[in-house]
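anyone seen this seq b4? input:
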Amino acid sequence: MCNLYSLTKGQAAIRGWFDGIDDQTGNLPPMPGIYPDYAAPVVCHGDSGPVLSMMRWGMPSPAFALKGKKTDRGVTNIRNIASPHWRRWLVPEHRCVVPFTAFSEPLNRPGERSRPIWFALGEDRPLAFFAGVWTQWTSVRKLKDGETTDNLFGFLTTEPNAEVGAVHPKAMPVILTTPDEVQRWLSAETADLPKLQRPLPDGALQVIDPED
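predicted toks r here
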């Protein structure tokens, strides 16, 4: 699963994908490493148009996964959208898109130490978006913080394309590469979402050097 991604394009690039967006992120610095349970920029529906704001990565976990646990670290990647747990957040008002420029999958080989492999749409790391959902939720994320109310997000996964499958054969994020795809995800009928939960075509991604 994808538990690490980066966003190195500025917020002006994000705003350029949306008409009349309300940017609530302030001065957004480059984010070369975004990890679970950290805050990251997300675009969702607002009262008068799209809103860019910071949310915490990790949707509420299903009840069965929390048995015997004192904290909920959240679910970063969502695959089974037929589950009643996720269905409640698939309506348009709970959909969002998550800007990124590269994402990582762990390469695990017998006898070798796991290492991250980074993927992007090109060497120049053009901006794209994960198809996601969000909610406001009260829970205990960390014992030392106690109960907090947060805006939480996660993004959908699907079967991998050829590039990602060579590293991680189980899944890849659902990626939107054009403004039309972004708007379709945000506004589509819920019944149409399974058609949008698809991998990028083979050849659409390339492995990049994270230090470049």
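The mean pLDDT is 95. DSSP finds five helices and 14 strands in the chain. kinda curious what u guys think
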